[in-house]
Amino acid sequence: MNPAGVESRPSPIAGDGLFTLRAFTPGERIVPYTGRRLNQPPDPGRPGAPTYTLEIQPGCWVDGDDPTNPARPANHSCQPNAELAYDPATDVAWLTARLPLAAGTEITFDYGFTVAESLFHPCRCGAPDCVGRIVAAPLRGAFRRHRRFSRPRD
Ligand SMILES: [Zn+2]
Q1: Which domains can be identified in the chain, with CATH numbers?
Q2: Which of 44, 70, 91, 96 is most open to solvent, judged by the fewest CB atoms within 10 Å of its CB?
Q3: From the CA of 19, how far away is ligand 1's center (Å)?
């Protein structure tokens, strides 16, 4: 079952992605990011590194690896067209359009991973400035410097 306005289907980025079935305007809510709440970050070294556990506000993580999470298929991109916006009034994080989205667009957002988490998550988003790992936008500069002094891992 697809939530209103979006569908899950195979993505050129990774696995299944989340795609619009209609246009969305900037700031418009698309679907909520739902799952079990955690008050500490996941262990990035745990086998099957937790791709779907995201920090929705400082100190609060959601394990979105749940088939009932309508935002679960949404892929990360280094040039995302959506973002997770936390609504403190309802305590819900919404996947929200950042740009005008035409029908049929793949919806992407910044998973906001730390550098440590990023080491377990290659990025294949295809953006011209893709850093090759899924890492939060504010950390990408530091991450590029880090990689310059590291041997490739894969
Ligand atoms: Zn990327």
Answers
A1: 6-148 (2.170.270.10)
A2: 91
A3: 18
Structure tokens at 49: 């590194």
C-alpha 128: how far from chain center: 18
CA of 83 to the centre of ligand 1 (A): 15
Radius of gyration of the chain (CA): 15
Task: Please tell me the pTM assigned to this model.
Answer: 0.86
Sign of the dihedral through C-alpha 30, 34, 40, 42: negative
How close is the Cα of 79 to the center of ligand 1, in Å?
7
Tokens standing for residue 68: 């009932």
CA of 75 to the centre of ligand 1 (A): 10
Q: How far is the CA of 24 from the centre of ligand 1 (A)?
A: 23
Phi, psi angle pair for 91, to nearest 5°: 60, 40
pLDDT tens sequence across 67-92:
999 999 999 999 999 999 999 999 99
